[in-house]
Amino acid sequence: MTQDDSLRAQIIKAVSQGLNQVPQVLAGWEGGSASWDALDAFSDIDLNFLVEDDASLDLLYAGAEKALAAVSPITGSHVAPPGRYYKLRDGGEFLLVDLCFFRVGAPDHSLDVERHGQAVPLFDKGNWLTTSTLDAPALAAKRDKRYQELRNWFPLSQGFVRKAILRDQQTEALSAYWGYTIKPLTELLRIRHCPVRWDFGLRYLERDLPSAAGEQLRDLVFVRDLDDLQVKLRKAEAWGLALLQDLHEHDQRPSVPPGAAVAE
Q1: What are 156-167's pLDDT values in tens digits?
Q2: Under CATH, domain 3-124 is a member of which superfamily?
Q3: How far is 199 from 186, CA to CA, in rounded Å?
């Protein structure tokens, strides 16, 4: 066990034991890289806890912070719903603690294996950590709504990028390319190749996309200058339109030409 592994174990043990003593905390588990059996030297510590609906989150965070500080002083924190990040003095540059509390009555506890991997149990006071069933119809409805939006918006919105290029607005052009081209293109690739995590953005792409598609997307992401951006915009736009058509044919959706208005 390396020094980093030892610190990681100390952090998990301290927070887990501290919260286990709180009656309103029902279960705890580790997620993130641990849930995918993909821990490395750069992994955060993703700690999740299921709590009663009337539990005070402020008090729970205060208790967890006390446990963290007993291992190493906290040098920074950031609220990022549904949780908070903590940086510890002894954790180095990369080791952050991502701490989340889920109320038992909440609709999603991020425990479905398909989207979040296999939770690593820390404690369970009542069989709360049984694998949850993915709400496939609800997920499909959200995914299809986004697909329909992109059929209309993706072809129309590429003009924002092209306009900024023609105006020689280099920073705005790159920003527009990321927002109007790369982001929705990534969503379409995920809908095509990994629909269960269609909304995960650029995370886990190496795991979720075929290697050829991942390499092709990577080549479009890295841009040298405006001339290179023009070339890659054309390629990315053509790929996005092809994906829209492929998804339409693959899923046998109602005939709606790309770029046409979609009735809500």
Answers
A1: 999 999 999 999
A2: Beta Polymerase, domain 2 (3.30.460.10)
A3: 9
